[in-house]
Each structure stands twice: as structure tokens, then as C-alpha cells.
Amino acid sequence: MNDIFTAGDRFLLNQARLLERRLFATCFLGQPATHVVDALRGYQNDDGGFGHALEPDKRCPASLPIDVETAFQALAAANIVDPEMVGRACDFLARTAAAARADGGVPLAFPVIEDFPRAAHWTEWTFEPGLNPTAGLVGLLYQFGIDHPWRSAGAAYCWHKLESGELPGDAHALSETLIFLEHVPDRERAERLAAALAATLSDVAMFHLDPDAEGYGLTPLSIAPRADSHWRSLFTDAQIDGHLDRLMKAQLEDGGWPIAWEPPSEAAACEWRGVVTLQALRTLTSYGRITQGG
Fold it and tell me: What CATH fold (topology level) applies to the domain 32-205?
């Protein structure tokens, strides 16, 4: 299946932004992960946060927690941590949490995005603190081994939400919560909550257990993107195989994978397709469905 890999590689060269090309080179070509850090520096603002449409659906230069998480995800994919870069971002998150007065929680975005082009779904709901993105951010900090006062405050917020019965009701909050539960040190506590979440998967909005489901949604491959993913055991072999089959068939003639929502511009669409194409290649390679081609 080298043709799938080679076509995806070609798409990234033709259409993807520098960050995804650097990530591809690190993940598949053995190039230094420091190149990914260098690519991220252009998105980090003086306040320590990240902006400039690092998450492409809002074309806002200001620092936003969702862009901080996108930066952390890129570092995790490259298997590198830049303590100074991450520490400055944590300072930004701490100030954001203090301003939100939500006991450590942070929102995805701020009203400043309304002054810039954005996808239609980026509205007022993104201004409220929640498990999305707080849980994902805290979980990634535990994964990095970066201690910071905000990490403790954010973790306390997540535990309170989850243990007071506020289980994730949509796929994105579910995904963020599972990142937190994968990496938080209190394993007995985390596994107990994970079992409760597993029992609700079929009821979570925008989560597609059925590989033939139509429309936008996250899938088991969003939760277990690698064959060795911690939460792979939440899904049957048939569920994983069905979604892998669909993922392989979804590649377009230009070598890239499509997106299932309307971004704010053609540039944003290209950027997103680079993101999802790189992830498709990483997932299909990890599960042995394709091999790296020359």
C-alpha cells in the first residue's frame, strides 16, 4: 500500500503548511524534532500563548487556549518538549483561568475572534470554560512531565467536573477527557472514570461508533489513533477495522483526505486537509494498513 502513503506525502508537499511538513519529516523521515519547535515559534505571541490560526478555523492572531492545545499536540506528535515554550504558554493559561474565575478551567476562545473570519460553529459557546479544552491541556502537561501551578488548578477543575457527574456529552469533550485520564498520575481514580465513560460511548453526541455514520463526528480512531493507544481497548476489533477501512477509502485523487465541515476560507481548508492527511498517514501506518513508500 505504498501508493497511499506516497500520494499522501505528495499532497502534504503540495498543499500543507510548514508545521505539518516538518511534523511529517520528523515522524517519517527521521529529521530532528527541533524543526517542529522552530515552526511553532512563529505562532507564539509575546504573552506566551499561541494564535495566528494555529487551529485553522478562526483566523485570529490573538492567543487562544485552543491554539495552545494545538501547539502542545504538535509537540506531542514530534515527541519533544521545549520547557521554555511550554512554560510561557502555561503562564498564559494561568492568567486566562484567573480571568475566567472558573476554579482553574479555561475556555476554547475569547470574543476577540468575532473581529476576524471564522467558521460558523465558532460562536459564544467557545467562550465558556469547560473540559474542552481544559482536560486535554492538563493531560498533555502531565504527558510532558511539565509541572506548573496551573496544571494543578486545571486538574482540580477536571476532577471536580467529572466526579460531580458532569460526564462529557459531546465527542470533543470526550476526547479531551480521555487525554486527561490517560496521563493523570492517579490511575485508580482515572480508570474508574474511564469505565464510566466507556458505558456512555453510544450516547455521546458527534461520536461515531458506526463506520458508516454520515456527517461530522469523531470516531474510535480519534480516541485510539495508534495501534498501541492507551484507549484502544475501549473498542472492538470490528469497530477499529471498520473505521480503518473507511479511512483508507476516503483518500481523494489529489492524495489528501477530506474534511467534513466548512472552514472560513480556502486557505483554512488547505491547512485543515494537511492536518487530517498527516494524521491519516500516521494512523494507517501504525495499524499496519499502509507502509512508508519512497
Answer: Glycosyltransferase (1.50.10)
